[in-house]
């Protein structure tokens, strides 16, 4: 495994956010890890120390200079941006310099002072004299320059064989392997992407890790929690979603990792009972008074931790982080790892994470196959930069039903029926952005096909009549309905009656009335010794259809009632299923919804191999294009 080069991205931030994003993406596309200071620490001295340390840790310096000089800390004569350049020059770190061209569109930022404008001009003149400078005319142009320059840098600075900074294993812990096997998902080895994150965390105490849905954030977070607990550290792993917390508890079973969802953890701290049911949503949050009391308790107790890992951190409010940090034994030195994907925030983005350095990025999608991946990446374009494995790309099914004529349940029936013909219902989950308590899907029964088709059996009995019973009229095409339609019934009765007349036989009373039975050989008429005449006589009455066995029905049940029985399908809200996954997902957005895009992204990305979307026309108009 090759060593990963690190690049310090140095620029002013408030005026160049899009340019910084393009710089990050260019680094990732070249296999270079970007170092960026996204948020200034509380004090100037901390900001200077952190930014200069990041320059020291880097292999190459990327300086991006626009039309602002930047922040000058009190007591200093130059900006932090210029300090970063000076440190790179002092250490002899390769420097790639990019200056905004005059042709670049105006930046909507108030002008700086005349003094800062003069310092910026002097700095740019210095840069041109000390380094090779590239001019960029737009964010996209900057990315192209960066991509080319980084490629040339890598050619002149080849990587060495990667040596882990620790004795980290490239394999998942046994509890994770065993639980994933119970979920019919074989997994043993971390991807290279995931292993690099695990190894990087070994030498860093406060880190944010981001990545799109399906990149394995929860598995990496859980694996790191298990390793720290095995090392004797008191480790807490938490999230906002109680259903995700249950999944994580199963993953860490048999270890010393403590798992809680945030509201439950706060309730236990303040001595209040806590429970949740199928109506839980991401709006369920602890009271402000309970947060204050929990903070006070943590300040006075030894119920604190050496390490805390937060999963799905985009769901946490700003004020929650104060309580989380208070739970660390030593907030300055203990471990806090934050895993998040801001694109999955089902409420408007709430918090800035208590981490100064830019996040580590997981890019390899390990979940969504083929057409499902195409849909997911339409919501999150960065995922497309690192597609799933070749095996996953060859699989994956996506279909969409647009609700017509205010008949949403009919479309739901068709989507579930089609899905159940592809995979076992136990592998399916039905998701909705709506509250399950008022959803028409709760308890819905969906008829599905038997392993046999009644149409095939009817054709069989007519096609194999002896010649003397053959009718000059052929059986017309039958519908594809799960049960015979009135037109199907009339068609079969008419053919049977006309065939009886053609052989000049009249109906006579049955000695033994025929009936349909289902056994290991499928659908058949009993008794088996029925004559051809008796079968025809049976089909000449509407009883042939009325006595067909009712098709089995799948029942949609919330988690509190779902037992995994043969004809049950799990029904869940999108928010409750966030962080989880299923082989097949039927996502039902039957009406316009707040935060529609986030709900569709989260819901669609839960699917591994099959995604069926049922959507109302107004919501469908808001879908991003894919493919």
Any overview of this molecule?
The protein is of the alpha/beta class. 37% of the residues lie in helices and 17% in strands. The strands form four sheets. Strands 12-20-19-13-18-17-14 form a seven-stranded mixed sheet, sandwiched between helices. A six-stranded parallel sheet has the order 8-7-9-10-6-11. A five-stranded parallel sheet has the order 2-1-3-4-5, with helices on both faces. The chain starts with a strand and ends in a 7-residue tail after the last helix. Residues 161-165 have low confidence and may be disordered.
Q: Which percent range describes the beta-strand content?
A: 15-25%
Measured between the Cα atoms of the first and last residue, the distance is 33 Å
Helix fraction bin: 25-40%
Order of strands, widest sheet? 12-20-19-13-18-17-14
* Rg measurement, Å: 32 Å
Main beta-sheet strand count, sense and barrel state: 7 strands, mixed
**How many separate helices?**
22
- The tally of strands reads 20
Low-confidence stretches: 161-165
Q: What general form does the structure show?
A: elongated
By helix and strand content, what is the structural category?
alpha/beta
Mean pLDDT: 84
């Amino acid at each position: 495994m090759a060593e990963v080069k690190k690049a310090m991205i140095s620029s002013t931030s408030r005026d160049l956010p899009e340019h910084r994003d393009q710089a990050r993406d260019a680094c990732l596309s070249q296999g270079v890890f970007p170092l960026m200071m996204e948020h200034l620490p509380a004090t100037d001295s901390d900001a200077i120390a952190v930014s200069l340390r990041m320059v020291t840790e880097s292999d190459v310096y990327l300086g991006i200079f626009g039309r602002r000089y930047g922040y000058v800390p009190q007591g200093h004569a130059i900006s932090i941006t210029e300090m970063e350049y000076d440190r790179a020059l002092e250490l002899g770190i390769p420097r790639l310099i990019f200056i905004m061209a005059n042709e670049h569109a105006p930046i909507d930022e108030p002008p700086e002072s005349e003094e800062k404008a003069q310092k910026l001009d002097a700095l740019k003149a210095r840069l041109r004299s000390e380094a090779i400078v590239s001019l960029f005319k737009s964010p996209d142009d900057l990315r192209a320059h960066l991509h080319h320059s980084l490629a040339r840098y890598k050619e002149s600075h080849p990587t060495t064989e990667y040596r882990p900074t620790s004795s980290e294993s490239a394999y998942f812990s046994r509890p994770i392997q065993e639980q994933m096997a119970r979920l019919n998902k074989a997994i043993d080895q971390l991807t290279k992407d995931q292993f690099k994150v695990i190894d990087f965390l070994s030498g860093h105490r406060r880190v944010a890790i981001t990545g799109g849905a399906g990149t394995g954030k929860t598995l990496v977070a859980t694996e790191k929690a298990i390793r720290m607990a095995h090392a004797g550290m008191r480790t807490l792993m938490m999230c906002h979603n109680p259903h995700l917390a249950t999944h994580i508890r199963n993953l860490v079973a048999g270890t010393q990792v403590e798992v809680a969802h945030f509201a439950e953890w706060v309730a236990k701290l303040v001595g209040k009972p806590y429970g949740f049911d199928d109506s839980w949503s991401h709006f369920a949050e602890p009271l402000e008074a309970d947060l204050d009391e929990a903070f006070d308790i943590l300040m006075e107790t030894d119920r604190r931790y050496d390490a805390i890992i937060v999963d799905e951190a985009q769901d946490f409010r700003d004020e929650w982080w104060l309580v989380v940090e208070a739970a660390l034994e030593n907030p300055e030195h203990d471990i806090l790892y934050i895993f998040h994907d801001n694109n999955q925030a089902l409420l408007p983005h709430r918090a800035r994470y208590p981490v100064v350095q830019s996040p580590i990025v997981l890019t390899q999608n390990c979940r969504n196959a083929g057409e499902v991946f195409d849909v997911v990446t339409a919501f999150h374009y960065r995922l497309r930069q690192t597609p799933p494995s070749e095996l996953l790309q060859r699989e994956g099914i996506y279909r969409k039903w647009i609700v017509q004529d205010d008949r949403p349940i009919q479309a739901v029936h068709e989507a579930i029926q089609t899905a159940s013909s592809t995979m076992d219902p136990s592998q399916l989950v039905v998701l909705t952005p709506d509250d399950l308590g008022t959803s028409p899907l709760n308890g819905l029964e969906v008829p599905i096909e038997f392993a046999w088709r009644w149409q095939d059996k009817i054709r069989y009995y007519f096609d194999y009549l002896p010649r003397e019973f053959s009718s000059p009229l052929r059986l017309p095409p039958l519908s594809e309905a799960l049960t015979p339609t009135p037109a199907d019934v009339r068609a079969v009765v008419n053919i049977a009656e006309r065939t009886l007349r053609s052989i000049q036989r009249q109906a006579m009373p049955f000695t033994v009335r025929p009936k349909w039975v289902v056994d290991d050989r499928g659908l058949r008429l009993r008794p088996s010794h029925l004559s051809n005449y008796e079968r025809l006589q049976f089909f000449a009455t509407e009883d042939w259809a009325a006595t067909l066995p009712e098709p089995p029905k799948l029942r949609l049940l919330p988690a509190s009632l779902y037992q995994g029985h043969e004809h049950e399908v799990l029904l869940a809200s999108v928010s409750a299923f966030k962080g989880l996954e299923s082989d097949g997902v039927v996502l039902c957005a039957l009406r316009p919804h707040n935060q529609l895009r986030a709900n569709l992204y989260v819901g669609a990305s839960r699917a591994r191999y099959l995604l069926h979307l049922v959507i109302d026309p107004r919501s469908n108009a808001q879908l991003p294009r894919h493919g």
